[in-house]
Prior knowledge:
Strand content: 25-35%
Distance between the termini: 41 Å
Strand order of the largest sheet: 5-1-2-6
Number of strands: 6
Helix content: 10-25%
Radius of gyration: 16 Å
Amino acid sequence: METxxxxxxxxxxxxxxxxYDRCEDRSIVAISEDRNKLINFYESNLLPYEERYRxxxxxxxxxxxxxxxxxxxxxxESLNDCIKDEWFILDDIDRIKMKYYVVE
Length: 104
């Protein structure tokens, strides 16, 4: 019998709805190896309610300009539905980090 051993890493990712997509469509916006850093990243980019606005195209903006600018905030106060996690093979993690915004 042949056996092999693999090493995996735990990745958390933030999924949000783009302001230009249907409300049920969500995509990965950012990833991190630390769930709390991902939450802090989200909260630090979210504008206070009184500062949210409609841009010149009529789109409602909830985030400051940056990686989350084109996205709607979480539908509920809790981010539990928007933060997912999975275990990946280490080689795959390197490829994933090249594709998405990484919160260190």
